[in-house]
Amino acid sequence: MIQTRSNDMISRCDTNPLPCGQARRSYVELFRRGSIWWAYFSVDGKRVRKSTKQTKKSAAAETAMLMLQAAKAGEPVKEMQLAPTLEDFAHAHFLPWVEASNRELKTKEGYRYGWLLLKSQPLANMRMDRIRTTHIEMASIPGSPSTHNCALRTLRRMFSIAVDLELISKRPKIHLRDENERTALVSPETEALVAAELDRSRRKGSLKLGIYIILDCGMRPKEIANMDIVDLDFTRGLIHIPNSKTKAGKRYVPMTVRVREKLLEWIGPRKTGWVLRSPRYPGRPIQRQALTAAWRRTCNKAGVSNDLNLYCARHTFGTDAMEATKNPFQVMRMLGHADLSTTRRYQHHDIAGVGELMDARNELRHNLRHSVQLAPLQDTLTH
User: Fold this and answer.
1) What pLDDT does residue 34 have?
2) What is d(CA 84, CA 129) in angstroms, rounded to the nearest whole number?
């Protein structure tokens, strides 16, 4: 008997049927990986999984039966090992792959953090071939939807590697959660409130400089934290970003007059070293988390809404830059994006302005129609 499985639908067809009352017939289970059909069967207590190298189910069934008969005739077969638990797979395969791969540093950090979130879940003790979509959706990962998705992306990568190593036959469907989009912008009034609060503090000079750089240059907080003095070109008025989140993030951004003056005042006579130095660890740059934590504390003291985080300043730059340039490709390059769809999420234009534009358009059309209607009468009076 051949048992075939595709897209969770199982159908069976008898091969060499036996009379009633005899022992249960042998069977082969077929499943598809990509366009190739694979066979799964058991011989002398050994579980075997082999590729039929066929793309048609009928041909795969015939090949599978020949493989089963050859195995019963004594042809050596490699026993299929049990799938590892998620935690065993992480230590044996996934984490070494993360360290050895040529992925971006940001991607590696995301995978490490994703595994830290997963290792405390019941999923970590389950065999990978037993994990289903329902188990994944029941996982309770603390934090925001973006944090939850970090763990899910890590899990998706782990299953892909396991399939590639033939430790499991297929991976379950993993659905990412809807993330909260940033819509709040840093208004001039909010900027003034935060700046006034920072002026009253003696230890937040680095945060104030960072806010101005994000608002005027659109840099990411981590790019600012890792900024080196040698990357500042005051002659041309440019900031070089050699290391960023993505390849597209490696770019030059222009300084505004305000940023140039603040940078010169901040670095003083220094010629080398980090622009923003860590107050706790000499010789190291300030941590991005320190900037975001200082922003939150400052906003709480200034009475600013919790919906406004430091990254909203970058969204403010993206919105203002689009209104000023009307050039989405230029804004994309300034923000360090590789795709316009990412830049689109940084646009939060006031829809009230659209109504004003439509009023101006209607007024213009009314004046044009009025001028056309008066033209014949003016010609008659002239003659």
Assistant:
1) 75
2) 8
